[in-house]
TrEMBL record:
Record-stated family: Belongs to the snRNP Sm proteins family.
Record organism: Coemansia spiralis
Alphabetized CDD domains for the sequence: LSm1
Protein name: U6 snRNA-associated Sm-like protein LSm1
Location of this chain's protein in the cell: Cytoplasm; Cytoplasm, P-body
Sections of the chain in a coiled coil: 97-124
């Protein structure tokens, strides 16, 4: 008797990820890394030894979060992290204060460019929506 793998789209497919290191991308854009300890039928997750990782360019910084509970509806993407490959990535870790400053500067630059883009579009007759949406 041969075994045919089955693919599930429900929360039960998380069973193979228990006690493994995962990266979870949330609706608000945050990236949480931690060890999956528990989940339920709604894909609510409990991560242990978690941290929030902030990427700016080729650098990143980590904020320790400890035990982190994530409501399933806030999960956009999750995947297992290969710890061997993670250590070999060409990214440099910086102190969190430096990363947060770089993130603020990047957000200010994006806002400046968006404002200019919106102004140009408006001059050409396009309606511009200035509302901040989560797009989900």
């Amino acid at each position: 008797m041969s075994f045919t793998p089955q693919f599930f789209t429900t929360a039960e497919s998380l069973v193979d990820s228990l006690d493994r290191k995962l990266l979870v991308v949330l609706r608000d854009g945050r990236k949480i890394i931690g060890v999956l300890r528990s989940y339920d039928q709604f894909a609510n997750l409990v991560l242990q030894d978690s941290l929030e990782r902030i990427y700016v360019g080729d650098a990143y910084g980590d904020i320790e979060r400890g035990v982190f509970i994530i409501r399933g509806e806030n999960v956009v993407l999750l995947g297992e992290i290969d710890v061997d490959v993670e250590d070999a990535l060409p990214l440099r870790q910086l102190p969190i204060e430096e990363i947060l400053q770089m993130q603020r500067e990047e957000a200010e630059e994006k806002a400046r460019k968006d404002k200019l883009r919106y102004r140009l579009l408006h001059k050409q007759g396009f309606s511009v929506d200035f509302a901040d949406n989560d797009l989900y």
